[in-house]
Design a protein that fits this description.
Chain A is mostly helical and about 325 residues long. Helix content of chain A is about 75%, strand content about 0%. Chain A has a domain of about 170 residues: MetI-like fold (Orthogonal Bundle), CATH 1.10.3720. In chain A, about 45% of the residues are buried. In chain C, the strands form seven sheets. Chain C has a seven-stranded mixed sheet with strand order 8-9-10-1-11-20-12, with helices on both faces. A four-stranded antiparallel sheet of chain C has the order 4-5-7-6, with helices on one face. The chains are: A mainly alpha (about 325), B mainly alpha (about 300), C alpha+beta (about 550).
């Protein structure tokens, strides 16, 4: 087996193992720790008979391993149980539209932030040590430090409520109307996520671009008489992007968690807001589903990042754990 | 699993490795070197000003943080320079009182994270073999959760207790700190003086604490600055989400949560704490960045990254 | 087995989240005050005045519009967003359900905007001497949405459906003493309710929205009622639209159609209103009142109500078992300040007694005011100097509650009492410790005294937060339930309420206003004292300019 393929297969295996362990942690934390879930659900109205019936329904009378197996089998079938707060409603039904909404938000944020960061990063590299570069550098450093909710509230104060009143301060998607007609609702949440991600991507791109621009390859192209912009965008950029793929993928993975605060802030009806609500209401099946989903996205994108890195930079193969 | 997505300049470069030198003195050199960067000085300046504001603020507060000085969301006036909050309390006073909790909780969480991370990292980096594998793989699983989601998961089980939040924020840092520690310890443990100590039959604990730990303080210093930045953000975010301090505490994160509904009427009650949290995180990040640069020996110039 | 599970499911729903707006909301439609004159069957108008205070100041609201504009599509935004919405009046729990069923159906009796009982489908409601047999005569010419006449059979069917022992509906607990075989058709327009025991407040049960009348063979999936609007389209969790019913017994509505839209998010609801997507919204956050008033073409609808958010002290636990501690705690509160800070002024000061619109409400008792010296003295006497207590509060209880807790903590300092506010989330507040908290807050809607006692303070009550158990009081209340004579009954109620004023476990510091908002184009709304939003969701006589 070629060493590269072997390495990728090992990564995949580790990724799957991680997902499995993640599911164990999620289940253990939510279902095994509370002394009696049925008691928690029934509260004061709990009688021995009711408790018994509910325990049987939830499978709490079985050993914990069996409960876990049952739950995992459900997850594999796409059945994540029923919400405790909205009784008799499947978690999957409650979450389906929210997953779509969050997906749209992350997608929009990615589509904006990645090209934006690449542009900013490339320009900083080309114009390095100019005023532009130092402004970008300082801005990146500041933005990288700011928590997302600080950026988001700053944008709300600036563009929605206090200075200008151009944008809606909350982003409730109306399910009855086409999304195209309410794109303005996506602007501030997507901008918040973009500003959270852009510093990292643009900075790594700048570093990588400088390396490429100083490479013999680009020097040669220039000597051959190719014009500056052509060299930059057709030759240097593709080579500079390759090493940054990992950081881009990692930042997309970060978005999976970053939406929690941003969705809450803008009241955007996605999974992040559902998670905050579910935690406040102790809706365990919802929490299990949401945390598992977010962690899965996170793990998969990290895996993609790892494999991308291995593929584009063989020299890293030995250095990486 | 890979390195965390949130990075600063310093750990974009290969994970820090100790740059030799006598045990104990190198972190002083790092500090001195870091101080030569403007950004470090600005960062220290910001943090010192905000820390002073947080510690001494109550002395200068015109009111007590819980007394009512006007109608809810009253506009700025002589009695309340920045208006009142959702309950009619003085915004300025509450801002002056509200920094202590953010700073102290974030500091506590960072120390917990550092302690846990360093412990695991040292053990893994020195013990190697299966202990290394086991410890690091276990921590890797925790890395599969975004930090905030991990903390929310535990809050959902135990409830939003303050000690739990500090503990969880701290422990959510541990895997990342452990990686850095391990990488540094791995290198140090190959050095001659460690081999010598081993040959002399010194106990493993002693080697870890007396030989290896003093030689990896510089990367840990960088980690500390970085994790402090994230701790402030995380703890404030949890307060903002409603899982933090109990009312009527004056706390920047809680103030944002409480007064958000009135932001179009009285923006100060939200804007002031948001600005302070923002500036504070920028300050700590500047310090972390300066330390990182000092560590990897970047020349002192203006705008490089 | 599966039936058992279903029942448990129901219990879970009731006992968890929904416990709130669920059964406790019963009173919002459930109590009357001017029983006497109405029982004499005099239709819609009554001269009885409200007890307990001045009329609300919401200006420019008149119920009778001169030359009302006809036609128009009204859009109303409400709080909601749950897929569990229902159009069945007997199962209507939350605000959306309430808003929907109020359009579709009507009851034998109801409450007017002043919280007085009124006859609706009933022409006359006549109890016998000891209030154990109630004779109802229907108005003539009543019509269902499908054109069929409303008959005594429909009434019998409706109440038998409510009392079905296998699946009793939410209206059943309000019909104390009624068994399915006690519902007797006398002729096509007359029904007799023969109770197993006297029940002086049976008419209040008839006025509950759960007990609105449905036709024989009623199918909730294809709802037919006799309310002002017919169903057009129902999308649970999103919206419900209606068209005007020209055969409505009060006359055809002015507007031609109506859409009620659900908003899960507060800010979204307000934005939809300010951008004129909807003509009116419910539950305007107090912080937004200024924004709405400053915005052209928009105004608030402020209704004075009998709804309350008490501090509840458990009288069977130390230190609250000592009546002096309870008295001291009541004296620590500066009620005006609390209304000002926690409700932004949108409420009226209360006197530690509920049911302000009840004719038996003791209006002559002195208003309790803050007296820190007396409070300190009482605490010292009881041996509780420098008392430290924990107050359980939650955003889930309602707006202004956590704020009131903080105001209380601040005011208590004046009497040397340290109050630690413990804000918990909804899952904890209404979890397994609910009704066992030593010192907590809760909320109640407008009810009259006996209805309130039945659910909140009698030993058999389901939500007795203070564990109130007072033999002298109970004797008075039980006697009141058996007393058909209104004057005598009111005297008993006054005496019972006075006992709670003196030694009860609730600190009732204010009745909160209901604040909704509507466009100036929408006229004909009247503030509703029940606390049901937007004039009690009465849209049959509103007009759109």
């Amino acid at each position: 087996m070629p060493p590269l393929l072997k390495l990728i297969l090992i990564r995949l295996g580790l990724g799957i193992l991680t997902l499995f362990l993640v599911s164990v942690i999620v289940f253990w934390a939510t279902q095994a720790l509370p002394t009696d879930t049925a008691q928690a659900i029934l509260g004061r109205e709990a009688t021995p008979e009711r408790l018994e019936v509910l325990r049987a329904k939830l499978g709490l009378d079985q050993p914990i391993q069996a409960q876990y197996g049952h739950w995992l089998a459900g997850v594999a079938r796409g059945d994540l149980g029923e919400s405790l707060v909205q009784q008799d409603v499947k978690v999957t039904k409650l979450l389906s539209s929210r997953v779509v909404n969050s997906g749209i938000l992350v997608l929009v944020a990615a589509l904006v932030s990645v090209p934006f960061s690449i542009l900013i990063g490339s320009l900083s590299a080309v114009w390095r040590d100019t005023k532009f570069d130092s402004v970008v550098s300082t801005g990146n450093l500041a933005l990288a430090a700011l928590p997302e909710f600080v950026v988001g509230i700053g944008l709300v104060l600036l563009f929605a409520t206090s200075v200008f009143k151009w944008m809606p301060a909350v982003s409730r998607i109306d399910p009855g109307v086409s999304l195209a007609s309410q794109l303005d609702l996506l602007v501030l949440p997507a901008a918040t996520l973009t500003l959270a991600v852009a510093p990292y991507v643009s900075r790594i791109l700048r570093a990588s671009m400088i390396e490429v621009l100083e490479s013999e390859y680009v020097m040669m192209a220039r000597l051959k008489g190719l014009k500056g912009p052509l060299v930059l965008w057709r030759h240097a950029l593709p080579n500079a992007i390759a090493p940054t793929l990992q950081v881009i993928a990692l930042n997309l993975a970060w978005l999976a968690g970053g939406i929690v605060v941003v969705e809450y802030l803008f009241a955007y009806p996605g999974i992040g807001q559902s998670l905050v609500d579910a935690v406040a209401n102790r809706d365990l099946p919802m929490i299990q589903a949401l945390v598992l989903l977010i962690a899965a996205v996170y793990v998969v994108l990290n895996l993609v990042a790892d494999i991308a890195t291995i593929l584009v930079s063989p020299r890293l193969r030995t250095g990486m754990r | 699993m890979s390195e965390l997505p949130k990075v600063t300049d310093s750990n974009l470069v290969e994970p820090a490795s100790a740059s030799g030198g006598g045990a104990g003195s190198e972190w002083v050199a790092t500090l001195r070197n870091a101080w030569s960067f403007n950004r470090t000085r600005i960062g220290v300046g910001i943090v010192v000003v905000i820390a002073l504001l947080a510690v001494l603020g109550p002395v200068f507060a015109p009111h007590t943080p819980t007394e009512f000085v006007g109608a809810p969301y009253a506009k700025a006036s002589g009695t309340a320079l920045f208006g009142t909050d959702s309950l009619g309390r003085d915004v300025l006073t509450r801002v002056l009182y509200g920094g202590r909790t953010v700073l102290s909780l974030a500091l506590a969480a960072t120390i917990i994270g550092l302690f846990g991370g360093v412990t695991f990292g040292l053990i893994a980096g020195y013990a190697r073999r299966w202990v290394d594998e086991t410890v690091m793989r276990t921590l890797d699983v925790l890395l599969a959760f975004p930090q905030l989601v991990l903390v929310l998961l535990l809050i959902s089980v135990v409830g939003p207790k303050l000690w739990l939040i500090v503990l969880m924020v701290g422990l959510s840092h541990a895997p990342r700190i452990a990686r850095v520690t391990r990488a540094a310890a791995l290198e140090i443990s190959q050095r001659d003086f460690v081999k010598a100590a081993e040959a002399l039959g010194e106990s493993k604990l002693r080697i870890l604490v007396a030989e290896i730990l003093p030689n990896i303080t510089s990367p840990l210093l960088v980690e500390f600055g970085l994790r402090l930045t994230y701790s402030i953000g995380l703890i404030a975010a949890l307060s903002f989400l409603g899982f933090g301090l109990q009312p009527p505490a004056a706390d920047w994160g809680l103030m944002i949560n409480e007064n958000r509904i009135g932001v179009s009427v009285q923006p100060w009650a939200v804007a002031l704490p948001v600005m302070l949290i923002g500036v504070l995180t920028i300050g700590t990040n500047l310090i972390a960045d300066g330390l990182g640069r000092a560590l990897i020996g970047i020349e002192r110039t203006g705008g490089e990254s | 087995m599966s039936d058992e599970l279903k029942k448990i499911g129901e219990i879970v729903v009731r006992e968890r989240m929904s416990r709130r707006k669920f059964l406790r909301g019963v009173g919002a439609t459930g109590a009357g005050l001017a029983l006497g004159p109405l029982l004499a069957a005099c239709g819609d108008s009554t001269t009885t005045t409200t007890a307990g205070g001045t009329a609300t100041t919401a200006a420019g609201e008149t119920t009778t519009t001169v030359a009302a504009t006809k036609g128009g599509s009204l859009r109303v935004g409400i709080v909601g967003g749950s897929a569990k919405d229902t159009l069945d009046p007997g199962r209507s729990s939350f605000e959306p359900d309430n808003a929907f069923v109020t359009q579709l159906y009507d009851g034998l009796m109801g409450l007017d905007t002043d919280f007085r009982l009124e006859n609706r489908l009933a022409e006359a409601v006549e109890p016998n001497a000891d209030a154990s047999v109630w004779k109802i005569k229907l108005k003539s010419g009543l019509e269902w949405h499908d054109g069929k006449p409303v008959t005594a059979e429909d009434v019998v069917f409706s109440f038998q459906r409510t009392l079905d022992p296998a699946d009793p509906l939410l209206g059943a607990p309000g019909l104390g003493g009624l068994e399915p075989n006690g519902i007797v058709k006398i002729d096509d327009s007359t029904v007799e309710f023969r109770l197993t025991k006297p029940n002086a407040i049976f008419a209040e049960g008839l006025a509950m929205r759960y007990n609105m009348i449905v036709p024989v063979g009623y199918d909730p999936a294809k709802p037919v009622g006799c309310g002002a609007f017919k169903l057009a389209e129902f999308r649970p969790g999103e919206q419900c639209s209606f068209t005007a019913f020209d055969g409505f017994w009060r006359g055809a509505p002015n507007i031609s159609d109506l859409t009620i839209i659900e908003f899960a998010d507060e800010a979204a609801r307000v934005n939809a209103f300010l951008s004129d997507t909807v003509h009116a919204i419910t539950q305007l956050p107090r912080a937004q009142v200024g924004v709405v008033e400053a915005s052209a073409g928009h105004q608030i609808l402020r209704a004075k109500t009998g709804a309350w958010q008490p501090f509840c002290m458990r009288i069977d636990l130390e230190p609250y078992s000592d009546v002096r501690v309870r008295q001291a705690f009541r004296l620590m509160v500066d009620r005006e300040q609390m209304v000002e800070q926690a409700y932004a002024g949108y409420g009226w000061v209360a006197n530690d007694m509920y049911s302000p619109f009840d004719p038996g409400y003791p209006v002559d008792l002195p208003q309790r005011a803050q007296d820190l010296e007396k409070a300190k003295a009482l605490l010292k006497e009881a041996g509780y100097e420098n008392l430290q207590v924990e107050l359980i509060t939650s955003d889930a209880i309602g707006g202004g509650v956590v704020a009131a807790a903080q105001v209380f903590a601040e005011q208590a300092k004046g009497a040397g009492v340290t109050v630690t506010v413990n804000k918990v989330d909804s899952g904890v507040m209404y979890g397994d410790q609910y009704l066992t908290w030593p010192f907590s807050q809760d909320f109640w809607y407008t009810r009259n005294y006996l209805s309130q006692a039945a659910v909140g303070t009698m030993p058999t009550a389901q939500w007795n937060e203070t564990h109130w158990d007072d033999a002298e009081w109970l004797k008075l209340v039980e006697e009141a339930f058996r007393t058909g004579d209104e004057t005598k009954r009111n005297e008993l109620i006054t005496a019972a309420a006075t006992i709670e004023y003196e030694r009860g476990g609730n600190i009732i510091w204010a009745f909160n206003d209901q604040i909704d908002a509507h466009s100036e184009k929408l006229t004909g709304l009247a503030p509703d004292k029940s606390g049901i939003p937007i004039g009690g969701f009465r849209f049959h006589n509103v007009s759109l300019a």
